[in-house]
Amino acid sequence: MPRNKKAVSVSGKGKRQCAARLVPEPQQIFKGLVFFFFPNNTASALRRLRIQRALDYGASAAETWGDHVTHVIVDKGITYHDVTKHLHLETVPVALVDESYPSECVKFRSILNTAQVRFRISGTPIPAGEKDSTPVDEVPASGSLPIKPSRREQQDETQIQLSHTELHGRVAEAQIAEQQLTEQLALMLSTEEQAMKCSKDSYSIVESIREKDALDEIIEEAKAVKDLPLDSDDEHHTTAEVSDSEVSESSESHPKRRKMNARRIEAQATWQQNFVCMQKHDSKTNAENANTRTIAVLQQMLDYYDRSGDQWRTLAYRKAISALRKQPKKIATRAQALSLPGIGTRLADKIEEIVYTNRLRRLENANSTPEDRILQTFLGVYGAGVLQASRWLAQGYRSLEDLKNKAPLTSNQRVGVEHYHDFAQRIPRNEVEVHGEIVRAAVTKADAELQVIIGGSYRRGASDSGDIDLIITKPSATIKQIRTIMLETVVPGLFQQGFLQTSLAATSRGDGSKWHGASKLPDGRLWRRIDLLFVPGSEIGAALIYFTGNDIFNRSMRLLASKKGMRLNQRGLYADVLRGPQRVKLTTGRLVEGRDERRIFELLGVPWRPPEHRIC
Ligand code: TTP
Ligand code: MG
């Protein structure tokens, strides 16, 4: 008889009762695929759920075995031998995967490679030369479609009736286990009948399981940042420009959050080993890292959360990136990711998703709705935080043009909108240098002892920067003297010569002083964000640490100081700091070092780390 002409029909006690409730077409990842579930019936509520789900995502479920089948989806406990035996095949000529396959595809919104070890069922012949532990690396979704072999094994196509009693003993065992699961499911639903009546409810179960995941995410992300308590000494954000109540609403300044952080500090007995920057890494090691692609995608996600003002997730992602950077080998699976410190289940899932699908679904979703895209645009306006951006959105503004023409804007916001595209562009390193040189010339002309140091990402060796951070200092001067000369002489002079374009914020808090604005090269077109930071000589060491960053490095240094009974801020390192319960600072302590950057490292008991190794 010609092979495969006739299908093998499968009977069982359950009749197929699933009808597809198709998800929107673009999400129908299984469209065109024909799944043969094994056992091929819906007697089990769990299997019914799986079949239902597959149908909803566009699959057809074959009632009989035949040529049209593209995938055999096998329940737990069933072996390759069971399948071949009961289908009367020598080998299974199509993709054969375990029951987790469809849900994993749905999870990743892609057709995953069926050859992955994790989907393999027991007894499946392993292709020669295959290294079991090596996952299929970065296979694009389109490249991993299971292709039905053009040539099939010869086989008898006698119509075979399978029944449960005919199944191998292991199948029976599997069904007992499944029955137990079904009972649990029935318990959840009160009766199985209810589940049948409303398959939507079945989805609610799946969704409620996901909700747990979301809770897990919060727990895991909390763990991920456990050794990075946020620091109340950080004054960087307390500038006049961030005035639309962003500061007071930021999660960072929330008293409860601080309390939690303090508890975390207590729990970190071996914290110093976990010090994020104990391991050296810079942009070079990053580029060579086996996890570069994963890091790049996670970085985009981090940027998204950063733009959204979600400091909690931002830190969690930074932690994950930092952990990945330290790995000499590629981290491909969830299990591998979970074994890294600071990576919880949700982030581990994301890492696996990136590796297997070469993309992160969440990233696409993050920018998917028109509102979200508008919000992202508005968040890019200089000085606009999440509150302001959301407010504009709620007020009906939909574009930068809308803001420019219709919204009442502060003068800073107007600059931010009008120079949106300028400020969004990275500044090449050599251009940062030229801006620095122009300021240096003006500064030294005003006072030969004044010095200009380019800080921020430039000092860390970045090839381009988001802004220009210039530290203005003088060994013997007080902050007041520096501020006076800068604000009364240098800044007006730089405006006059056409270099400075606008002043955005001149802030002063305590002794700290800074001037924020925009500058432009004489032959340039773009306005660049420039920060002038006034630092007295007695504080330059601490200021260099602070204004070199990055922020995670700064937080780590501060936490390290705190663990040693000291306090570090942008002005200096202080000893004998009295702290009350939950490490709340009671006294400011005694200044032990402010001038010498290296000495601060020494006093903290950590080896000197050049700026380019402070990329955490
Ligand atoms: P930024 O100029 O904001 O950052 P950057 O120079 O590192 O990066 P970019 O290329 O995007 O400009 O701030 C300068 C330094 O100030 C930063 O490296 C570390 C410190 N800082 C903090 O410690 N915490 C903060 O929240 C911010 C914004 C900065
Ligand atoms: Mg900068």
Task: Give an overview in words.
This protein is an alpha/beta fold and 616 residues long. The protein has five domains: 1-126 and 160-211, BRCT domain (Rossmann fold); 233-273; 370-424, DNA polymerase, domain 1 (Orthogonal Bundle), CATH 1.10.150.20; 427-544, Beta Polymerase, domain 2, CATH 3.30.460; 549-613, DNA polymerase, thumb domain (Beta Polymerase, domain 3, 2-Layer Sandwich). It contains 26 helices and 16 strands. It has a five-stranded mixed beta sheet, sandwiched between helices. The protein has a four-stranded parallel beta sheet with strand order 3-2-5-6, with helices on one face. The chain has a three-stranded antiparallel beta sheet with strand order 14-15-16. Strand 14 and strand 15 form a beta hairpin. The protein starts with 7 loop residues before the first strand and ends in a 12-residue tail after the last helix. 38% of the residues are buried. The structure holds thymidine-5'-triphosphate and magnesium ion (MG). The site of magnesium ion has 6 residues, from helix 22. One of its GO terms (molecular function) is lyase activity.
